Structure formats: C-alpha cells, structure tokens
Amino acid sequence: MIQVARLAPKLLGDSTQLIEEYLLGQRHAAGGFVNREGMPDLYYSVFAFDALQCLQSKQPLDGFADYLKSFECGDSLDFVHFCCLVRCASMVLGKETPKAPFLERLWSHRSADGGFHPQQGIDESTAYATFLAVGALQDLGCDLLSIRSEVVASLDDLRAGKLAWSNERAVAMPSTNATAAALTTLRQFDCFPDTETTQWILQMAHPMGGFLAAPQAPIPDLLSTATALHALSGDNQLLELSLREQCLDFLDSLWSNVGGFHGHWQEDHIDPEYTFYGLLALGHLSVSESL
After folding, report:
1. Exposed/middle/buried for 198, CB within 10 Å: 0-12, 13-18, 19+?
2. Which residues pair with 168 in a beta bridge?
3. For 212-264, how does the pLDDT look when each residue is reduced to its tens digit (9 = 90+)?
4. Is 57 helix (H, G, I), strand (E, B) or coil?
5. pTM of this structure
6. d(CA 90, CA 98)
7. Distance separating alpha carbons of residues 48 and 41, to the nearest angstrom
8. What is the DSSP letter of 94?
9. What is the CA angle 25-29-35, rounded to 5?
C-alpha cells in the first residue's frame, strides 16, 4: 500500500505540502497523533505516520519513539491497536522492537481454521483480523510460507456466494472492504482474483464516482473507494477512463483545503485515516493513468 500511495503527489501537485502540514499538525505533545477527540491514539498514529512516509516527509517526529515504547509489549491493547503498534514499532524502533513478545501475541490470535481473529481462542477467523495479522507478521520479518495453505483455506470459507467476501461466516453478506482485505492478503501468497470477483468489485462503483461499501449502501465512501482500487490494482486494465475520471471527481469532492480528506459526502470531519486513504486512492489512479 505504501509504495503505491507514494505516487499520489503526481496528482496532488502543490497540495502535497498542505497534506504534510495538516498531518504534522495532528501530533500530540505525548508523541503520537491525535484522534477526533484530540487524544493521542495508535490507530490514527499509524495512518498519519504511513501518510507522512508516502509524502517522503523529512520532518523529525520528536517523541514518537518514546510514545511507542510507552506501550511496552502492547499487552493492554486490543488487537487492532496492537497491530498498529507492531507496524509503527517495526518502522521506528528497529532493533529495539520487542519482536518475541509481539510474535507471541500475534500467534495467540490464530483461529482453529488457520486464520486470525481479534479475540483469542476463537474457532473461526475474520477477513480483517487475518489481513492485519499477516501484515504485522510481515512487518516483523516472518516467513509466511508455513501458514499459506491454512490462511488461504480460511479465507476461502469466508467467500460469500463465490463472488466476494464477508468479514465473518456468521454474516454472509459480502462487502467491499472485506473483499479487499481478503484479496490483499491472498496476494501475499501469490493468489489473485478471478474475473467474477473483479466484476463484483466494479459493480460497487457509484455513477457519481467512488465505490460503495456494500450493494445496499446509499452513497460511496473514501475507505471503500481506496480499498476497491487497491484490490483491483492487479487488474488495472479494467479501470476504464470514465471510471477513473469519476473517481477523481469523487476524491475532489471530499478534499479539504485544510490538507485532508472527508470520509464521505455527509462527513464533516477530516482525519489522518481518511487522508491516508485519499493518498492510497490517488496513488492507484495515478498508476491507471499511465496504463
């Protein structure tokens, strides 16, 4: 994701500096980046940090390493925030990263079906948790070959109607984000989408630009748009010029001259998470421009 998001400045032009200034302005005195309540939050910190990496910012992040170290091994964190800690620590702390306890915690979330779940000791995995866990294992330099077959099988069980993916088996309703999470994970194991899946994702495109989170969603949103484009990135020839232009118009409608992106048309706030997804979407659209 980071590699392609780094291409976003090709389309942003002079607005790139606005985004960098906005993100740097989201730093908290404690060292992390703030959530919507103005408090330091690992979840928002990982998006801000990755976005700044995409922009190749040279600004020092004073106190960020100490902020990460304050969580020690992340025992007090839920699974999502723990994976955010792993991501940031692996990039910032280097040899000081507590790799062994991090790995122990990650493996404790392995489900009986071979995937991963946000809770420990659960039989059936979720697409999102498996995506996060595989990414965290990669951040820690793990060889994923030993878990390939089991992870692939667990994700196959989450495929709803053999077209797209739901996040969990109990809710057999396919969604754009669960499908993107599954496809991104499968890509790490050299498994790529078939024509039926790419067509399903393309059907989530909204006539006014962007992608829907699910077939019944009333309006498109930035998260679903970015993840849909990322899922389609192995098949960019399917991104027709008209769809590309509609997506660019959609992103423009969510842009704030403060230097960030809104999540959807009814969203008043901007934050580092949506700003990162704006960069990811623009990165993919800049790639499709050159095909």
Report:
1. middle
2. 171
3. 999 999 999 999 999 999 999 865 546 788 899 999 999 999 999 999 999 99
4. coil
5. 0.94
6. 9
7. 10
8. G
9. 60
Query: Looking at residue 192, what is its pLDDT?
Result: 86
Tokens of 8: 């976003």
CB 250 within 8 A of CB 209: yes
Q: What is the DSSP letter of 144?
A: -
User: For residues 176 and 165, is the Cβ–Cβ distance under 8 A?
Assistant: no
pLDDT band at 291 (very low <50, low <70, confident <90, very high): very low
3 state DSSP class of 56: coil
Q: Which two tokens stand for residue 89?
A: 């620590």
Task: Using only the alpha carbons of the chain, give its radius of gyration.
Answer: 19
- Tokens of residue 248, six digits: 């660019």
CA distance 241 to 237: 10
Q: Which residues pair with 229 in a beta bridge?
A: none
Q: Is 161 left (phi over 0), alpha (psi -120 to 50) or beta?
A: left
Three-state secondary-structure class, residue 38: coil
Strand residues in the chain grouped as ranges (E): 159-160, 164-165, 255-256, 260-261
The pair of structure tokens assigned to 152 is 């692939």
Over residues 125-133, mean pLDDT: 98
> In the numeric block, which tokens belong to residue 13?
């032009």
Which of these, 218, 102, 96, 115, lies nearest to 158 by C-alpha position?
Answer: 115
Q: How many Å separate Cα 52 from the centre of its chain?
A: 15
Q: Which residue is associated with the tokens 């699910």?
A: 214
Q: Is the dihedral of CA 110, 113, 115, 120 positive or negative?
A: negative
Ramachandran angles phi, psi of 274, nearest 5°: -65, -30
Which candidate, 178, 148, 134, places its Cα nearest to that of 160? 178
> What is the pLDDT averaged over residues 163-181?
94
Find, among 68, 87, 100, 173, the residue nearest to 133 by Cα.
87
Under a CB-based contact definition with an 8 Å cutoff, are residues 136 and 118 in contact? no
